[in-house]
From TrEMBL:
Sequence similarity: Belongs to the AccA family.
Reactions the enzyme catalyzes: N(6)-carboxybiotinyl-L-lysyl-[protein] + acetyl-CoA = N(6)-biotinyl-L-lysyl-[protein] + malonyl-CoA
Membrane-crossing residue ranges in chain numbering: none
Domain CoA carboxyltransferase C-terminal: 39-292
Protein name stated in the entry: Acetyl-coenzyme A carboxylase carboxyl transferase subunit alpha
GO molecular function: transferase activity
Domain of life where this protein originates: Bacteria
Gene designation per UniProt: accA
InterPro entries cross-referenced by the UniProt entry: Acetyl_CoA_COase_a_su (IPR001095), ClpP/crotonase-like_dom_sf (IPR029045), COA_CT_C (IPR011763)
Function field: Component of the acetyl coenzyme A carboxylase (ACC) complex. First, biotin carboxylase catalyzes the carboxylation of biotin on its carrier protein (BCCP) and then the CO(2) group is transferred by the carboxyltransferase to acetyl-CoA to form malonyl-CoA.
UniProt source species: Viridibacillus soli
C-alpha cells in the first residue's frame, strides 16, 4: 500500500476513488473503464501540478519517507559483486554505516554510506541511521584502504546526524568526525558523495568532503534539522516549515549556491515510487562523474577538492 504524505492528500483521495471503481467493476457486471480512465488522467495531471510546485517542507517530508531507497537499495541496484566489510579495528562495528568493495562498470570501487532501517526492528539495529564514532572510523579505514589500492570512493549520505548520546561522546564522536574531514581532504583518489535522503549536520559532512557532491532532487543537506533550527531561532519546533524555507536546504538552493555539482532528477512523486528507475538516474550521474575525475592526477584531485571547499561561502560586495 502506497504511503501518502500530508501534501499528497488530494492524490490519496483520488486514488481511493479509482480503487473503489476498480473493485466495483471487478465484482459487478458493470463496465466503468471509461470513468476509471478519466480519473487516472486526472490523477496524473494533479500529480504533475503538485510536484511541479513543491515547497521546501514538502521535500523534507519526501526525504524522510519511510519507503525511500537506502544506501543498500542503491548498492544492490547499481553495483556488482558487493562485499561488505565490517568494523573499525578499534571498538566494534557500527551498522549505521555500511561499506565495502564492489564493481561498477567493470572497475573496482569502494562504497560507503549511511544506512537506516526499513522497519522499527531494523531501525533500532541501525540506530536510525545515526552513526557512532566507530562508524566514522570504519568509513575512514575503508577510505584509506581505497587510497592504498587506487580505488575511487563513492559515499551515500542519508542521516539526520551523528548520534549525540553519552556513549558516543565518550568514545570521541567529535574527534572521529573531524578526523574524517581532515583525512578526506587529502585523499589521492576520486571521491564522489551523493545525498540520497537527509544530509544532517556533521554526521553527513563526515562523508561529504568530496571532489563532486550530487543530490537527489528531493534530498536535503543542512547544518541542522528544520526542527532544531526552529527551536533555536524561535524557541518553537513547530515552526520547522518556516525554518526549512529560510535555511535553503534543498537541492535547487544548494546548486544555486555552488555547494553541489548536480541535481539528480527523481521519478514523479519521489525516489520511493520507482526504485529501479531512480537507480538508473543515479547510475548515469555516477558514471559521468567518475569519467571526469579519472583523468585527474593524485595532486589534481587534492587541489580540486581544496579549491571546491575554499569557494563555498565566498561572496562579492
Amino acid at each position: 500500500m502506497v504511503k501518502y504524505l500530508p501534501f499528497e492528500a488530494p492524490l490519496m483521495q483520488l486514488s481511493e476513488k479509482i480503487n473503489e471503481l476498480k473493485d466495483f467493476t471487478a465484482n459487478a457486471d458493470v463496465d466503468m473503464s471509461l470513468e476509471i480512465k478519466q480519473l487516472e488522467d486526472r490523477f496524473s495531471k494533479l500529480a504533475k501540478d503538485i510536484y511541479d510546485n513543491i515547497q521546501p517542507w514538502d521535500r523534507v517530508q519526501i526525504a524522510r519517507h519511510p519507503e525511500r531507497p537506502t544506501t543498500k537499495d542503491y548498492i544492490n541496484a547499481i553495483f556488482e559483486d558487493f562485499i561488505e566489510l565490517h568494523g573499525d579495528r578499534n571498538f566494534g562495528d557500527d551498522e549505521a554505516i555500511v561499506g565495502g568493495i564492489a564493481s561498477f562498470e567493470g572497475r573496482p570501487i569502494t562504497i560507503i554510506g549511511h544506512q537506516r532501517g526499513k522497519d522499527t526492528k531494523e531501525n533500532i539495529r541501525r540506530n536510525f541511521g545515526m552513526p557512532h564514532p566507530e562508524g566514522y572510523r570504519k568509513a575512514l579505514r575503508l577510505m584509506k584502504q581505497a587510497e592504498k589500492f587506487s580505488r575511487p570512493i563513492i559515499c551515500f549520505i542519508d542521516t539526520k546526524g551523528a548520534y549525540p548520546g553519552k556513549a558516543a561522546e565518550e568514545r570521541g564522536q567529535s574527534e572521529a568526525i573531524a578526523r574524517n574531514l581532515f583525512e578526506m581532504a587529502g585523499l589521492k583518489v576520486p571521491v564522489i558523495s551523493v545525498v540520497i535522503g537527509e544530509g544532517g549536520s556533521g554526521g553527513a559532512l563526515a562523508l561529504g568532503v568530496a571532489n563532486q557532491i550530487h543530490m537527489l532532487e528531493n534530498a536535503t543537506y543542512s547544518v541542522i534539522s528544520p526542527e532544531g533550527a526552529a527551536s533555536i531561532l524561535w524557541k518553537d519546533a513547530t515552526l520547522a516549515q518556516k525554518a526549512a524555507e529560510a535555511m535553503r536546504i534543498t537541492a535547487p538552493n544548494l546548486k544555486e549556491m555552488g555547494i553541489i555539482e548536480e541535481i539528480i532528477p527523481e521519478v514523479l512523486g519521489g525516489a520511493h515510487k520507482d526504485v529501479a528507475q531512480q537507480a538508473l538516474n543515479l547510475k548515469a550521474v555516477l558514471s559521468n562523474s567518475l569519467e571526469q575525475l579519472q583523468s585527474f592526477t593524485s595532486e589534481e584531485l587534492v587541489q580540486n577538492r581544496y579549491d571546491k571547499f575554499r569557494t563555498v561561502g565566498v561572496y562579492a560586495e
